[in-house]
Amino acid sequence: MAVFTPLGDAQVATFLEPFDVGRFVSLQGVAGGTENSTFFVTTDRCELVLTLFEQGEQEELPFFVDLLDYLDAYRLPIPGPVHDRDGVALKRLADKPALLFPRLPGRHPENPSLEQCRVIGDTLGRMHQLSRHFSGHRPNPRDLSWLTAMHHKVLGFLRQEDQTLMKNAVDDFEGEFAARGELPQGALHGDLFRDNTLFEGDRLGGIIDFYNGCTGDLLFDLAIVINDWATAEDGRLDQARHDVIINAYQARRALTADERALWPTMLSMTALRYWLSRLLVVYVNPPAHDLTPHDPTQFRTIFKARQMYGTLPLPEAPASTAGQSKTAR
């Protein structure tokens, strides 16, 4: 979240008029973030979040609106966009696309408890159960084909050891995925880090920031969660957090045999995905705004740990969901 386009009270008050959200009271810019301008808006009836989309593929915004509406309709802890009295959610403000959301309670968990890990695993499993039936489509912009195409752009900035590690890993990933059938597909969050969740104690207030959302391998989402939520500072996996998340997830959706076989590869690939994307921002495509990019070192450490130590054994699925693995596609 951040503010790149300033707004005035009068602008926002006028913007709110078509919505049934009450009378404008106050506006507060939200610091932080890398892409969009974000504001907290208070009316005499509710608290809202207003987002202006500054860059990115703006023609894909209807996909995100449809996905959030779909998930919100099933009462997942996900903020569906606020629609105006005519049923329209996506608007323009200050010549930028704009969406309005209810403001959710909670804070980002810095050091998640086992209960918070259980809750995120359970919620992601519920979401994937439902998202397999979502009719929208947006190809995963950070999948293996992206890694294959983009990793060459950063090799010249790396030490020889890291160049070899990255090139060999991409080759290995291609072979390992080609040896398996299509994995279970559905809509993904695509970036479910701790800072895209809000907790009040152990209660999940909501999952936010779906702007990396797409459709693709459900396992991709789960691997992102494990790499962020269940990883120690040295890059190794924390067994207690890992097992709690996986057990809660599989209570909702059992992993298939192909998913289980590809699990170490997917964990390593998603770690490389973030190492590469951060390297690209530092060396190739710096952010449009004057912001400090994420440090690539964190995910270099995680990726090297996955390559060196592999992963932990996957817990077996509960008997009540194990039969789903044959029909999850």
Helix and strand topology:
Blueprint (H helix, E strand, L loop, with lengths): L8 H8 L7 E6 L7 E7 L3 E6 L8 H13 L17 E3 L2 E7 L11 H18 L12 H7 L9 H19 L6 E4 L8 E4 L2 E5 L6 E4 H12 L9 H14 L4 H27 L13 H13 L9 H4 L7
Antiparallel strand pairs: 1-2, 2-3, 3-5, 4-5, 6-9, 7-8
The assigned structural class equals alpha+beta
The CATH homologous superfamily of the largest domain is termed Aminoglycoside phosphotransferase (APH), C-terminal lobe
The proportion of residues in beta strands is 5-15%
| Element-level helix/strand string | HEEEHEEHHHEEEEHHHHH
Give the strand order, joined by hyphens, for the main sheet.
1-2-3-5-4
User: Compute the gyration radius: what is it?
Assistant: 20 Å
Please outline the major beta sheet.
5 strands, antiparallel
Tally of distinct domains: 2
N- to C-terminal distance = 35 Å
Please, how many helices? 10
Q: Name the helicity range.
A: 40-55%
Top CATH class of the largest domain:
Alpha Beta
- How many beta strands in the DSSP annotation? 9
Low-confidence stretches: none
CATH architecture annotation name of the largest domain? Alpha-Beta Complex
| Global outline | globular
* Overall average pLDDT: 93
Stated plainly, the CATH topology of the largest domain is called: Aminoglycoside 3'-phosphotransferase, Chain: A, domain 2
Domain Aminoglycoside phosphotransferase: 27-253
Keywords: Amino-acid biosynthesis, ATP-binding, Kinase, Nucleotide-binding, Threonine biosynthesis, Transferase
Organism: Halomonas piscis
Protein name: Homoserine kinase
